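Ticket #4471: structure output looks truncated?

Reporter: J.K.
Steps to reproduce: submitted the chain below (252 residues) through the standard prediction queue, then opened the result file.
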Amino acid sequence: MVRKQIRIVLAEDDVIQQSLLVSWLKAEGYHVDAFDNGLDARNHLSNHWADLMILDWDLPGIPGDRLLTWVRARSSSTVPVIFQTVHSDEEDIVRILDTGADDFLVKPFDRMVLLARIRALLRRFNNTASDSRQMIVGRYLLDRANLSISGGDLMHTLGTKEFDLLWHLASHRGTVVQRQDLHSVVWGWDGGATSRSVDMYVSRLRANLKAIGVEWTIQSVYAKGYRLNMSDDGGVNVDASRTNRNPSAVPV
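Returned output as attached by the reporter:
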């Protein structure tokens, strides 16, 4: 079995600092998407999801705090975020945390400290996700205990793989989830480019949602993967502790 590779988005405009951080992270086995411009990072995040983000405060294009505000407004807003900054004043640190950062590091910082902070955040967020047995998505409730989707008079049970696909797509609603990531998350292995397992189960999931009248669409994104779009209002949030950021869709 091949373990899912952790994806980290790094936004750092200092070329030397960015190169150093990328080398540290890749040496630990992380997949890194690095950007020197806040706008480029936002454009990437519009169609991709990340397991963790490392943001700099003073980014060209879009400053780090505005980028983080945008991230927190999206359905995948529970991604853990570490802010790196030269600003060490208490007022600046409070602003960083109030904007939605989960941790911060004042430059310059030690490699081992950064890696330890990353591991701690990933453990905390992974434990939260694994403990979530129910998730409210718009008007519907997803329940892991009985693999069901329910809302109003509706109560429908899905197959295990279909439910796991729906859960993961709903957790990243509005964001493209790459096919290989669905393989890793749902099947726990890297199926390779020739495998059609994901496509087959997505097709079955689409048919199920249509048959029971759930007006969500699973969009195919060419050469990338799938994106769940919902016609009803409300976003998705996978961490109940963050309900103030996106109150219409939370785990229970």
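Triage note (M.O.): checked the attachment and the full token line is present. Residues 190-194, 233-252 have pLDDT under 50 and may be disordered.
Status: closed, working as intended.
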